[in-house]
Task: structure prediction
Amino acid sequence: MAPVLETTSLTKRYRRGQYALVDLDLSVARGEIFGLLGPNGSGKSTTLRLLLGFIKPTRGRASVTGFDCWHDSLRVRQRVAYLPGELRLYEKMTGNELLAFLTRLRNTRWINDPIQLARQFDVDLSRPLSHLSSGMKRKIALLTVLIPKVDLIILDEPTNTLDPIMRDLLLTLLRTARDRGQTIVFSSHVLTEVEQVCDRVGILKDGRLVHLQVIQEMTERRVDVRFASLPQTWPDFVPPPRSLTHVFNYQGPLPRLLDWLAQQSILDLRIHSSGLAPIYQKYHHDLA
Result:
């Protein structure tokens, strides 16, 4: 099956020879949630703008469902729903009027019921946007990308201003969208939510894609153990401790570790996934 999103040597150079993105090669499948990670200035926003046809690539190309993102930008945007990091909404419209306007503009049918979603997000669509808080405006903006039947959803920092309950609801709705075949590109600074919802992530640094990671393949675990007494022997996969309280990272089959721990005198034990943080810090250790 052809990818929904594909880039080949995608590059953007601004004035004075400054490169914001260099030779991005990326393929995102239908029904996949792809996380785009990196600090400010790493190339995330430039990548999203290139995908939407807002700016012209210096070289290379990007396509959505086979349509070139620059030369066929209108057809691309008909197939994409986009939530920017900084909202610019029609403040004089009500939520209902905004949804109706954008639906006519895109000329696509709804895949979700806006009334039901509005109830879930606890937002009043009858009020003018100018009368709403920034959090309520963000919720209505989310409705505009979750309602239409599109191939690709692009989200830039979508959980900004959302409380934990609304954040969890959004992540659940994104998984539902993925399961029905929609593709999602998800940019975020919050590694924990990326781990929860994404199938793969790409880490950008200085405009280059430096790492691709399948979330299910993250096998490193952090082990916190407090011994009643120090073991007499240490296997090669456990570094020797400096005290009875020992913290280390382990990568390997879990039964192997548990078999050894079961033979020790232990007062307390905690094993949890190390997550994306060690991988991210490998490339952005100065920001950790």
